[in-house]
Amino acid sequence: MRDGRSHAPRKSGAGARPRRNGDEPHRRHSVIVVLMLIAALAISMRLVWIQGINSAQLAAEARANRLHTERVPALRGDILDANGEVLATSTERYTIIVDQRQMPSYREKSQTAQVKGVKAVAMELSPLLSMSVDELEQKLTGKSGYTILAKDVSPEVEAAVKQLRIGGVTSERVAERLYPAGQVAGNIVGFTGSDGTALAGAELSFDEILRGTDGERQYERGAGGQLIPSAQVSEKAAIDGESIELTIDRDLQYRAQEILAQRVKDFGGNGGAAVVIDPKTGHVLALADYPTYDPNNPGATDAKYRGNQSISNVFEPGSTGKLFTMASVINEGKAKVDDHFSIPYRKDFGGESIKDSHEHPERYYTLAGVLKYSSNVGTVEVSRRIPNEKREEYLRGFGFGAKTNINLPGESAGILHPAKDWRGRTQYATAFGQGYAVTALQIVSAVGAFGNDGVRIEPRIVKGRVGTDDSFTPEPEGEHTRVVSSDTAATMRDLMDNDIDDNGKAAGSVEGYAVGGKSGTAQVPGGTYTSSFISMAPMDDPQLVVGVFVYGINGFQSGSTVAGPAVSELLGYALQRRGIAPSGHPGTELENEWK
User: Fold this and answer.
1) Gap between the Cα atoms of 81 and 461, Å rounded
2) Which of 152, 207, 217, 395 stands 20 to 30 A from 131 (CA)?
3) What is the torsion angle, in degrees rounded to the nearest 10, for the CA atoms of residue 305, residue 310, residue 314 and residue 318?
């Protein structure tokens, strides 16, 4: 009141309601109550959903999160030789595992146990695991959810540990692969990795049969990974693999490897192969390589020697190839064993100069003599009686240029070009074993056709499979291919028999047996030589074909000198080992010269 006059209160407007200060808090309170009711209703509905409608699903999800699955490895089947001797086997062993976090609670609720916790577990396990209580206490103490107590535990010990029912003590099955024969047939058997994966040889080729089907073990575990003691453990048993029985004879394989290794060393070669087959079944009785390896420790040998040189290494056969030239021409009716040939040391054919291995004056050989004295010039003369395309057809019939389907890793098909591509010297060189390449197994199998009435049988390395119930299922024989007639096969046996003097002293011969065979020597790129010899016996009823091949020889050394004596030794052992009686009549002798 500045001027002493009083003033009446102002009205905000006609008819205006007076403001109530308590309206705003009341409204906020109402909103909060409504929101709380909505939240409570939502929580209630969620609880109804979780505990009622969806409880089974959530429980299943929770259990699934706790559920742990372990692989139970199947045991691989055995690999056996033809007589049931074990070449590869798997042993069932266990690793004992402990969850250290569960050890203090052992027997904690027991009213009678004098010793509890880690000490009690150690005392229980000590006599079973052959470990001291102190040593076990150290391994059982800690906070690890996975500690190995013992390895290489037998199934009997593992079962005894399991019977103790100690929470937190479990086991894992381990399949250990062993090769009792060591290096014997190592190149055939192959090996597996530390995890059981097949890596080479028959282990790899027949893995589907050998490996079996793994099982599984399921159990619930806590947040820390520990086994829940009260939880149920379920197991699906593993199905162990079936075994395979090879055609290989372990003792014969051993001798083949031993004889071959010595021969390679004696002549300074860089490797070799030895093959023994039954020509009437195609069964491979020995397939030796040098160098080879021990499947128990393959890493100790250079990787290039962990395969099969006898099926992967290719070489020109040299004079052993003359057998197939003679067979093809005779089978075509264009030559006979007593045909006459005049053979100079050197002769030109189509502008190409062909010569024999050693200089000589003109010789007068029959066809039998051409083969016996291994004349290149004479063989080319014989080969020209049929077209090159026909000779190629026969070579393919004998299995060259194609895999034998032996079903081992790394096999080569060899090299055989079409006859239309035989240019210049090649068209003549193919007659005496040059210009194409073969494997050791290929050429021994091809020679086997002469011992089987002219029918070549694809070689086989597996005799059959042995089920987990010991049932035996034989493998079918390899494919049969008639290459030459029965008469031609008989003629070839006579020619091969004539080629070896049956005195027990000649290369490739065995005293008391009629033996037939042929030597071969061929130069390879780089200047070294491959020397070989192949023999068959007994010639009146062939049961065995044996070939020995020595690679990487420096300087010319004939197959008769290098491989012949090894064949004699191996063939002689094989004949005795197989119980094959000596021949009932002397070997065949033909007229080799006509003038």
Assistant:
1) 10
2) 217
3) 130
Residue with tokens 């209630």, as numbered in its chain: 44
In SS3 terms, 255-313 reads as: HHHHHHHHHHHHCCCCEEEEEEECCCCCEEEEEEEECCCCCCCHHHCCHHHCCCHHHHC
Which of 38, 509, 548 is CA-nearest to residue 263? 548
Percent of the chain with pLDDT over 90: 72
DSSP class per residue in 63-107: HHHHEEEEEEPPPPPPEE-TTS-EEEEEEEEEEEEE-GGGGGGTT
Count of CA atoms in the C-beta half-sphere (13 A) of 216 = 6
Nearest to 196 by CA among 214, 184, 182: 214
Burial label, 231 (beta-carbon count in 10 A; 0-12, 13-18, 19+) = middle
- State the angle between helix axes of 322-331 and 440-451 in degrees (0 to 180), rounded to the nearest 10: 40
Please list the active-site residues: 319
DSSP 13: S
575: which 2 tokens?
């004949």
Report the alpha-carbon distance of residue 302 to residue 187 in Å, rounded.
13
pLDDT tens per residue across span 81-96: 999 999 999 988 899 9
Rounded CA gap, 241 and 76, in Å? 5
HSE, side-chain direction, 13 A CA sphere, residue 576 = 11
- CA-to-CA distance for 449 and 456, rounded, in angstroms? 4
Single out the residue of 454, 438, 209, 192 nearest to residue 328, CA to CA.
454
**Residue where the block lists tokens 């798997």:** 90
Reported as a single tens digit per residue, the pLDDT across 291-317 is 999 999 999 999 989 999 999 999 999
Tokens at 173, concatenated: 């099955």
Helix (H, G, I), strand (E, B), or coil: what is residue 525?
Answer: coil
Lowest-pLDDT choice from 59-63, 379-383, 502-506, 585-589: 59-63
Number of other residues whose CB lies within 10 A of the CB of residue 11:
8
Among the residue ranges 8-22, 170-184, 242-256, 315-329, the one predicted with the least confidence is 8-22
Place of tokens 């044996």: 546
Can you give the pTM of this predicted structure? 0.82
Report d(CA 388, CA 428) in Å as an integer: 9
CA-nearest of 471, 447, 472 to 457 is 447
The model's pLDDT over 326-357, given as tens digits with 9 standing for 90+, comes to 999 999 999 999 999 999 999 999 999 999 99
